[in-house]
Amino acid sequence: MTRHSSPHAIPSDAVQLRTEDAIRNLAWFRYNLRKFLRFSEKAARQCGVTPQQHQLMLGVAGYTGRGTASVSELAEFLQERHNSVVGLVERAAQRGLVRKEHDTNDRRFVMVSLTEQGEQILAQLTELHKEEVKAAKEALMKVPKVPAQVLEVKKKAI
């Protein structure tokens, strides 16, 4: 034992293994996340909206539990700047997906809700996502030692 190590110190090879596991877990998580996002983006476009408009409609309908959301709440949900969300809401309103109304208690706040068209498109997208969400959840729960996709790619390369 060196003079800087404690009797309870984790051996460096164990730390390395944990780091490798953490890297593999993160890589697998990001791979499955990106795979899901690509599916979701494609589904949105097939339904005639942009991926950002789909996310906006999800935020309006589901983020607060009220079926309506302020622009500030949507900025938080979307992890975007307030002024970017103002533009997104404006474009979605022009497309007939959402409606904007001033808050009755404080006219400085703009509340956003879905139109009937927005509700229909969101319902359609939600149906399209059900199986993909289930598959993504299952994939994220298990991290393979070597993903089957990697083995398949290696076989094709040989």
From TrEMBL:
GO biological process entries: response to stress
HTH marR-type domain ranges (all copies): 19-158
InterPro entries, per the entry: HTH_MarR-typ, MarR/SlyA-like, WH-like_DNA-bd_sf, WH_DNA-bd_sf
Domain of life: Bacteria
PROSITE patterns, alphabetized: HTH_MARR_2 (PS50995)
GO molecular function terms noted in the UniProt entry: DNA-binding transcription factor activity
SUPFAM superfamilies: Winged helix' DNA-binding domain (SSF46785)
Cited SMART domains: HTH_MARR
Pfam family, one: MarR_2
Entry protein name: MarR family transcriptional regulator
Native organism: Edaphobacter paludis
Organism lineage string: Bacteria, Pseudomonadati, Acidobacteriota, Terriglobia, Terriglobales
